[in-house]
Amino acid sequence: MKYYFRHILIFYLALLLIGCKQQYKITNSKSVNNEINNELSTNNFLETTILPYRTELELQMNEVINTSLIDMEVGSPEGLLGNFVCDLTYLKAQEISGKLVDFCLLNNGGLRTPLPKGEITRGKIFELMPFENEIVIVEISGDNMLQLIEYIKTKSLITKSRKAGVPVSGLRIAINNDTVSEVKIGTFAFDTKKNYRVATSDYLANGGDQMDFFLSPISIENTGIKLRDAILTHIINLSQKDTKLDATIDGRIYYAE
To answer: Most buried among 39, 66, 94, 191, using CB within 10 Å?
Structure first.
């Protein structure tokens, strides 16, 4: 957690400096010779300066915001962690847009740590999602959807890699050997003549993780909501409803026989 604390502290200190806009007028000045303590290192100076902020930040990061009933990790062709994050992202995108969002697609590489069974702290969510990625809704053509489906199939057939598999919500794909045998968006069969609105992160929408099918969109809708904030808000809202974290493997991407 030290890595995250350090960067968040720098951010807080920058805000404090920017906020110090009060103007002062010099009414008296004098020169005084003071002895400099050469033994005081830069690290010691920084430690003294940021200590009050670090203490406050550690209290915030150690705050328990909910409890998970299970261990959630990424997986392929689907995983509990990917299902959990994609489901809440899909709901948030739909809520903000006010227009139909067909499905959500993220990447396992962006989910940096599992969510363990037991107490979940605010800091754990910063570990899970340390990036400043925002939720966007990308409208793509049926042709680009074919590339997206092929991408999911390829990633789902990879083994022994943490980045294998593609987390989705609202999308169902059956893979038979090396062929995609069924694709449903919601309750409807995939139609190559239709356009589809996909909730994802701005990083992936810009072609991250080799998702080139997003690079020629029909339109992009920015939500202004960071993915990490959506996760935090969802987990806190569940806690307020006395609901603990849970997820299931439900066959949204599966190997057909």
So the answer is: 66
Please give the full DSSP string across 85-104, using - where no structure is assigned. HHHHHHHHHHHHH-S---EE
Write out pLDDT tens, residues 204-220: 999 999 999 999 999 99
Residue 119 has φ and ψ, to the nearest 5°, of: -65, 135
Q: Which helix (H) or strand (E) holds 12?
A: helix 2-19
* pTM, to two decimals: 0.80
Cα–Cα dist 156/5, whole Å: 35
| Cβ-Cβ contacts under 8 Å for 171 (sequence gap 6 or more) | 102, 103, 104, 105, 183, 184, 185, 252, 253
The β-bridge partners of 175 are 180, 255
- Packed helices 227-240 and 80-97: angle between N→C axes, nearest 10 degrees: 100
Mean of the per-residue pLDDT values of the chain: 86
Listed by start position, the domains of the chain span 73-110+133-225+247-255
- Phi-psi region for residue 83, left (φ > 0), alpha (ψ -120 to 50) or beta? alpha
Coil, helix or strand at residue 200? strand
Place of tokens 């899909």: 90
Higher pLDDT, 187 or 41: 187
| Rounded Cα distance, 255 and 237, in Å | 34
- Check if CATH label 2.30.36.70 holds for domain 73-110+133-225+247-255: no
Contact call for residues 231 and 129 (beta carbons, < 8 A) = yes
Percent share of the chain, pLDDT over 70: 79
Q: For Cα atoms 39, 45, 48, give the angle at the middle one, nearest 5 degrees.
A: 125
